[in-house]
Amino acid sequence: MTEVKAPPLVHDDVDKHGEAPLDSIPIVERPAIPEYALVGRMHIERVVETEANLPLRNGVVRNDKIEAKSFGKAPVPYQSATQKVLIRKDETISPSTASGVEKQIISANGVSYYQVAFPDVLRPLSIGGDSNNMYATEYALHAYSVSYSILKEEQSPICNMPTTQFVLVNHLPLDEEVITQFLVRLNLPHQVCLAARLSPCGVVYLTSEQVKTAKLFNGHLFDFICGRDTRNKGEGEENRIKGFLILPLKDEVRLGRSEMELGRHIDWDVVLNFVRFNFNSKKRMSTMDSNSGPSLKLNMEAFDVKTLSTCGNEWLTLKSGVYREEDLLDAFVTFGPWGSSCFITGIARGLCALSPMEGDKHDICYRDYWLKRFNVELQYVSQPLLVGCSFSRTGNFLQRPSEEAIWCSKMLKRVLLPPEVCLLIVGLKGTLWRGAFKLPSVLHGLENALLSAQLRDLVGVKVPVSKMQEALTSGAYNVYHSYERLELVGDSYLSLLGATVLYLENTASSKDDLASSLHSLVENKLLFRCAEASGIAAYVFNELFQIKRWIPPGLRFEKGRTMQRVIPEGQRISWRTLADVVEAIIGACVMYGRSEDAWKAVSWFGIPIKHPQNIACSHVFKSGVRKNQIFRRQMAHLEKHLQYKFKNHYLLNPALSCCSEEEDDIFQLNRLAFLGDCILSHHVAKHLLITHQAVGVGTINEIKQAVINKENLACAAIRNKLHGFIIGIDASQREAILAYATAVESECLRTGAAPAYGLLGLLPPKGLGDLVPGIAAAIYLDCGLDSDLVWKVIRPLLEPLPEPGTFSMHPIRELTEFCRARLLSLDIQWGVQNGMYEVNVIVNRERIARAEHEDKRFARKYAAVQALDVLQSSENKSWLK
Fold first, then answer.
1. Rounded to whole angstroms, how far apart are CA atoms 209 and 501?
2. pTM given for the model
3. Is residue 830 domain-shared with residue 768, that is, in the same domain?
4. Domain coverage including residue 819
């Protein structure tokens, strides 16, 4: 394979601005994530990338080579991949010395495998391991009961059936906030939606023998309900990952906080019966059918014929023996050669094997059906049929079901079975199954909540666990929350923080230079490298919860290949997802944490941004300050209008010189407007997300753009009479401003609302759209960088803020949505001719609108408005058909 030089990142899609230098990423001190915090044999890697053969520090990696690599069944094979080699501190290695070092393959499209962490509080202690003290030792375990409440019921009979309650016991107390606020929404089959909660029940004392039995019970129960191989049940392997246990409670118990009361309510009979049962169903069935010949007849050699002849009508003969009718109610049985399962809900006394099958057009009876379809000859044709209720095995009940999901729309299926084709599973009742098959999803949700609390404590912030968990959950996880909303706030906060630092440090940089530097400072690829270095990938919830990869509590019986399939090998996470999670965690700290928590998160991730308070801002306008042009009376009126009193009047000079033609005024105004735009973007997004909780992120972005675009900000300045405070303009400029103000006021009177994207055919005077951002930035610098105070002053200037149902879309976006809804092809072409931008709108290969203007944005907007008028008035024309 041809070797090529590795790129500076593990991904191929390097943007045009390049990468921030790796030396700019500081190595910050943070609490180390212990190796045992990960599942199985995987370890955390705190890594950043360097060039080959350079000194390495703090466990970093270097690029070796690019290799072609394909994972799974990707529709397009990956072009290349970079090997990441974990090495020790202060060590330099070459590709030849990399053998024997743990490697991780990063795919070229930015998707890679990362390890999965597990909460420390649920890890096992050495309990029940000393057989000599098995009966002499008691263990105090903290208990938490699992309860359910129905959120949605669609006339499903499963809601009215009794279920076994369970209690979770753990050697350490769980996080109090997690238990208090814990709620997992379960979307069960058959259109039932439940809410699972945990309640503390005090401490329960178990002996070593009881602990050992409980481990066996958990291993058998979860292997069985998860549909895993149960052929080699014996001395199980100790679970080194999960130390908590699940125990059943007696029917209809009400738990108190008394330890003795809870100990009496644990149903040890169910535990012992379940542990003693032979789970090798294939071996059991083959033994029963070994003498039945080719036609799966019931082998009666194991039963007493005299006893059978003396049985009354209350006895029924099953494939596994003879049982009383009352013993079969709610019993769990398997039937048929395919091993289907159900639990018995009743006995159909009016039906037997000679009765015609329900819904069969040929009037075939049950005996003939079983003989013809499965070659099973029924011997006890006069026995009444059993009424069974089938159900699915456990699955991922955490995910949000789609409307097209078949499993969510089906109701419980009622089956009628001849008793002698049924194999009774002794020790397993329907109540136990109905309670247990929900537990994997509940326990996985609890593990995620505790893992989020562990990361919160590691970062050292005071954020609600539910919001930290939301920040760690991607949309691919398909639950009812994800990080998109928090990521929007975190992104705008980082932009504001970076813009503040750049503005204060680089007093000679222009607006374009500041924007370029800000992009390099907070770009996604730099955040991705910070995420990798911090080990945050182990805490991200990105892939759907899969039962086959979930490790249950209790002893583990699967060995060899089966065990390898159960142990998760990590999850696939893209570099963009990791960058978004970093922003989402910072956003959670901004929205729900303390004032200092956001900066704590920024520092913990090692994002190379200085704290703005550590930068002296007294020199911002020290150099080149001209004579103060703001008269005292004018300043007093402006302060009264803004409801804010300035400490430094010089800060307002650039903002109020927004229409000046002098080069220095334009330079200072652009810098100030750059900072003000970041302030408005952050606080408008934060306000909209708090106000409209049920609105999607896409709509929030559209509303935000309708607020902070330059045309709307110019109209806001006109509505609030701020144009009267502009300084440094001549008579012609003042006349243009007054003309625009008159047009805006006329439009407001005509439509009843201010135009969100300006007036059609009339651009705002140059610099007028920067007046409000400039004033916001001046207040921000004057009040000591308190952006919350700035928002209190500026928000009244932007009122009324648009609502989700009333905001105006940008004409280009409106045109795009119009064509997409009607399946029309859209092409917007532009060019420059004689210093004018010419824009043509082509729909279905026909030009329908054309506009010219010296400003490209205005030309595009005007052409889109013309196209919308044509389309809306001509929907019935032939070219639209």
1. 63
2. 0.78
3. no
4. 811-880
